[in-house]
Give the backbone structure.
Amino acid sequence: MRFVIVTGMSGAGKSVTLKMLEDMGYYCVDNLPIPLIDKFVELLYIPNQEISKVAVGIDIRSGEISKMEEFVEKFSRDNQKYEMLFLDAKDEVLVKRYKETRRNHPLAGEGRIDSGIKKERTMLANLKKKSNYILDTSSMLTRDLRRALEQIFVNNIEFKNLIVNIVSFGFKYGIPSDSDLVFDVRFLPNPYYITELKEKTGNDREVQEFVMKTDISQQFLKKLVDMVKFLIPNYIQEGKNQLVISIGCTGGKHRSVTLANKLYNSLDGKSNYGIKIEHRDILKDTHRKS
């Protein structure tokens, strides 16, 4: 029996997640009153049951969340196997979703949506800490969420709660709005003014060698890697599940791409967090010859 508890912030995608898990062969129950969970679990473990995969959706509508914490502790004491998935999203994203659907937050009453979100986040803090998996759906497309769920609950691929996103960008196109850390590398040697390098990018060896040829470039990279490696364990301990590191130059084609690649290569392969890289503006300054 695989028993999954799906919880998290209201508006973070619990209903969609349960529908996807249902498509993956899970028997799903949403908004089960918390006092009934214990009895429900007992029924699941009656011998000769045909059901082998179950997902239960629990949120603040289900009753006292403190009761849910008690059940989780009881499951642990009784060596009851379970997994808990916590769905989260940034406050501004949750507010936007509520406004788009014209729904009221269950804790907001007649007040503002953001006040309800703040209350809920406080109430769910302990459950989040106890969760096996945390998915931040702020910037997830439907296909991204499905892919993540399949990796965890179908393919059984090891899931890493903290995902480090390294993004190169051009300041002329604006700083990525979801950045946690922003680094300006416009002080490094600029290949744009070298004729044979102008049309190449930071993905090309020649550009990388040009950008990294000075001691300043090498020192900056070393200090950047050291700082990020220092920060990541502290972010993991704090419970952060997504870290966006944005590295910018003027056009987002040469210097920022080079440093983003160098940082990615220095961090890739670590066991306690996932890592992704994106070159947001790499093609925007491409000059096509007629």
In short: The longest strand covers residues 163-170. The longest helix spans residues 215-238. The chain is about 40% helix and 20% strand.
